[in-house]
Amino acid sequence: METLTCICLGIGLSAACGFRVFVPLLFMSMASLSGHLTLAPGFAWIGTYPALITFAVATGLEITGYYIPWVDHLLDTLATPSAIVAGTVVTAAMVTNMSPMLKWTLAVIAGGGAAGLIQSTTVVARAASTATTGGLGNPLFATIELGGAVTTSIMALLAPVVLVALVIVTLILVGRKLLPRKLRPSPASI
């Protein structure tokens, strides 16, 4: 059960990386320093004071940047690959008692995938906001994304299995809504 909890915690924090790259890393650093989070061997650096300060500064700059017109689009361009890398690292930092091959495969597919999926969704939402509001709605999206990063990070730390279950249910519901009916399998074929 401990391994499942660690995997869910990693995937949950990785999903939060899709909203904001540095917020989950800041939460991980604080939780590790306070003794509430145990990091996998080789990732103890996340729970150090220099890392905490670095993540705090990076988080502040990232949050501020998303409220500045045009900078938010530049950040989206940079954040997409960064979120995937951060999601991979976050999941790897949480997974213990697993062979390195399996650990990194899981980290890349589940962690990087969760972060990339969420980040891609936010990029599309921001582009739609820019197209429909001329960019005036982007600060609202920035606030919603920040709230998503903070809420997801907190939920991942407090109830990782519940969070992953909620993410899966949400993805199924969104997939059903977005997937055209003719591409969905018919009930008779299942």
Q: Overall 3D geometry?
A: globular
β-sheet strand percentage: under 5%
Helix and strand content put the structural class at: mainly alpha
Distance between the termini: 31 Å
| Average of pLDDT | 88
For the largest beta-sheet, the strand count, sense and barrel status come to: none
| β-strand number | 0
User: Roughly how much helix do the residues carry, as a percent range?
Assistant: over 70%
As a whole number of angstroms, the C-alpha radius of gyration is 17 Å
The domain count comes to 1
Instruction: List the uncertain runs.
Output: none
Helices, by number, come to 7
Task: Give the H and E element order.
Answer: HHHHHHH
Per-chain topology:
Blueprint: H1 2-19, H2 23-33, H3 49-65, H4 71-94, H5 100-133, H6 138-158, H7 160-178
Helix pairs in contact: 1-2, 1-4, 1-5, 1-6, 1-7, 2-3, 2-6, 4-5, 6-7
What would a concise description of this structure say?
This protein has helices spanning 2-19, 23-33, 49-65, 71-94, 100-133, 138-158, 160-178.
What does this structure look like?
The protein has helices at 2-19, 23-33, 49-65, 71-94, 100-133, 138-158, 160-178. It starts with a helix and ends in a 12-residue tail after the last helix. The mean pLDDT is 88. The protein has 190 residues and is an all-alpha fold. The protein is globular and about 50 Å long. Helix 1 (2-19) packs across helix 2, helix 1 packs antiparallel against helix 6 (138-158) and helix 1 crosses helix 7. The relative contact order is 0.18. The protein has one domain (2-157). It has 7 helices and no strands.
